[in-house]
Each structure stands twice: as structure tokens, then as C-alpha cells.
Automatic annotation (TrEMBL):
Alphabetical list of Gene3D superfamilies matching this protein: 3.40.50.1100
Keyword Metal-binding: no
Protein name: Cysteine synthase family protein
Organism: Alkalicoccobacillus porphyridii
Keywords: Pyridoxal phosphate
Amino acid sequence: MLQIAESVLNSIGSTPLVRLNQFTKHVEGNIFAKLEYFSPGLSKKDRIALEMIESAEEKGLLEKGQPIIELTSGSMGTGLAIVCNLKKYPFIAVMSKGNSIERAQVMQAFGAKVVLVDQHPDSQKGKVTGKDLELVEEKTKELTRKYNAFKIDQFNNPGSVTTGETRLGPEIITQLGDTKIDAFVDFMGTEGSFIGVSNALKKAFPPIQCFGVEPVNAAFYNSIESTAGTHIIQGGGYHVPLKFIDENKEIISDFIKVSDKEAIESTRLLASEECIFAGYSGGANAAAALKLLKSELKGKIILIIIPDSGTKYLSTDLWDILEYDE
Ligand SMILES: Cc1ncc(COP(=O)(O)O)c(C=O)c1O
């Protein structure tokens, strides 16, 4: 129902769930994509930011006007920038310079103070590693003390999981109506929302299989010989142990590896064939789901999340203009 929202905060959530038609034309089965980039901060993290701030307020953990701080690859930071702005908390976002600059620009536009941290000498721009994340964490700790700030701590904050259980998961189940799904596939950053959504889906569809997605070059859970290499899928694949995964292994059927090439090709196909303008992680999820439809899940229905928008990658070579002979 269309109505006047009290503020942009009320427009967080209620994103479309769309069947991919062209992307799956050569395989048996279906992929349903939850387009989280329809949110005001253009990512799945808006809901999580709202949940974490509201929960901290309810528990009396936040003082009026207290600065809030978080390390971010840009998505969580943008969600927090929106929620903090509208709820009148100063917000400090600490991000690696390895992430695309659009992320910092958007956070700043929403009123955040953005602190950019140099990458580790071994790292490359556009490819953020666990070593880069450590440097961002160090800077975040320093600034938390300096400003007596409230640290969101998305890698440990239970809100990462509860948002999936109480907000995103139930919304998907309502949208599915009588349609049953067989599997859920999600790229791993903190993986809180993967676990939360999986918990909700498992209750609604007990036989469901849930798969975590990792970059081939930085597969931590998927590989016996684990390699801490670089990759272009911003927002995760840091090759670090994940608390939410380690505590919930029983819900995970398996982990799937996706290469940069597969993620890029799928991201471009989502745009050219489905008019879904996703970022790399959405492409990685679609690529992983397609692999499953070509193998063990032939003929099944798979749910994926499109975590963010392709507009956040305009400065990368993802959308380079192709040269045509006239
Ligand atoms: C674009 C993008 N995709 C995927 C993820 C991973 O999400 P999560 O931390 O919920 O695993 C993130 C996290 O920030 C992200 O920014």
C-alpha cells in the first residue's frame, strides 16, 4: 500500500523479490533474487543498521547524541549514516582505501565523518584483504577511545543475525506465499544475515539447503589448502574466521567458491539480461546459484540476495564502456 512515510527510516525494507528469467535460460530450475539495493542506502545493511541502533537504544546502551563508530566496507557505513543522521547521532565510518570511493562519497553525503585507512603495503586497490581489515580495526579502536564512541561491531553484534531472523527472512517468506524454495545462497562478509535468514527459512522450509559463497582466491571455509589471496568482491571474503559461521555450522550445507571472472560476468549479465544493477557480491551469488543449478540442484529453486547496487562500482572497471566499430 502506498502511503506517506514519516521519514526515510520507514522506507527501509520492503524490497522486491524477482524471478530471474534470462539468466537461467540454459539451465533447469529457478533463481529468485531479493533486491536489497532498493533500500535508501542501496544495500542490505540498512535494515541491519536500523536493527542495531534501535536495539542499543532499547537496551539503554546509547547516550543521547553519543558518537557512533563502525569499521565498514561502505555498505554498513551507509546504512548507519542514514540511521544516525535521522536519529541525531554523530557517525564516524572507518573504511579501507581499497574499497571504491563512491562508498565514502555516499556516507559523507549522508553526514558521516569518513576516515579512510591506507591499505597494507602488500595489498592492491579494489582488493581488500584480511590484513587491510586489521588496519581498519586498529584505527576504529583508537577512534572509539578518543571519541568515547559506541562501536557497532558488526562482526560480533547479534543484530547481524537477528535482522535476518526477524526482518529480512520473514519478509522473504511472506513474498514467497505458497512457493517453496530448495536452497539459499549468500556471499560471506560477517555472514550474520546469512545465518539469520537461514534460520528463518529453515523453520518455514525445513529441507532447505544453505550455502555460503567465498572467493576462489580467499576461500577460508571451503578449502583444505586455504589461501589468503586477493579478489574483487568487495564487502567480504576477508579470509578470517567468522563468529556467526563458527557458531552455526549445523545450518550450512556447504560452501561454494566463485572466481573474479565468474562474479564479473554474472554481475554484467544480471544488468544486461535482467536489468538488475548489482555489485560484485550480487554477481557472485548469482554465479554460485547457477553452478548449483548446473550440478547437484538441477531443477530446483534457489534464493539469492543482491546485497548492493552497481552504482557503487562506477569508478571500477566493472562497467567500462565497450568500444564498437560504427
Ligand atoms: C556489497 C556487499 N555484499 C556483501 C556483503 C556481506 O554481507 P554480510 O556482512 O551480511 O555477510 C557486504 C558487507 O558489507 C557488502 O558490502
